[in-house]
Amino acid sequence: MAVSVRMDPLMEKELELAAKRKGVTKSQFIIDAVQHALGHQDPYALLLKIEAEEQASPRYQVMEKAFANDRFQGDLGDSDAVRTYIRDKLKKKHGLDAG
Q1: Three-state SS annotation for the chain
Q2: Do 24 and 44 share a domain, yes or no?
Q3: Residue 26 structural domain
Q4: Is residue 65 in some structural domain?
Q5: What is the pLDDT of residues 6-23, one digit of tens each?
Q6: What parts of the chain have a pLDDT lower than 50?
Q7: pLDDT score at 98
Q8: Pick from 5, 50, 64: which is nearest to 30 by CA?
Q9: Burial 78-98 (b: 16+ CB within 10 A, else e)
Q10: What pLDDT sits at residue 74?
Q11: Cα separation, 70 vs 87, whole angstroms
């Protein structure tokens, strides 16, 4: 949807220079400013913030310690090793590891 904005020439020049410094178009600069004014946040930045808060919580620290030795330690790209790890964990969980 197209929107027209009227502004005095001095403000338009400031807009042009600010957009140029930021390396974006005037339209993108205005969109970013409106999103900021409305309180919209970058989803990725929000995710990082939530993860940081979660990791700082005491409950996370307790869970981290509890499961520290119970994680796959190898290369996650090695599907055979991951498969073997999961299979061994399931066998142990269901009492099938005794041979």
Answers
A1: CCCCCCCCHHHHHHHHHHHHHHCCCHHHHHHHHHHHHHCCCCHHHHHHHHHHHHHHCHHHHHHHHHCCCCCCCCCCCCHHHHHHHHHHHHHHHCCCCCC
A2: yes
A3: 9-58
A4: yes
A5: 999 999 999 999 999 999
A6: none
A7: 60
A8: 5
A9: eeeeeeeeeeeeeeeeeeeee
A10: 82
A11: 14
Task: Note the pLDDT of residue 42.
Answer: 80
Look at residue 99 in the predicted model and tell me its pLDDT. 54
Are 25 and 36 in the same domain? yes
Place of tokens 């964990």: 89
Looking up tokens 């929000």, which residue turns up? Answer: 46
State whether 45 and 63 are in the same domain. Answer: no
Structure token digits, residue 78: 């090695």
Task: Write down the residue that tokens 């904005």 correspond to.
Answer: 5
- The amino acid at 48: L
**Model pLDDT, residue 15:** 96
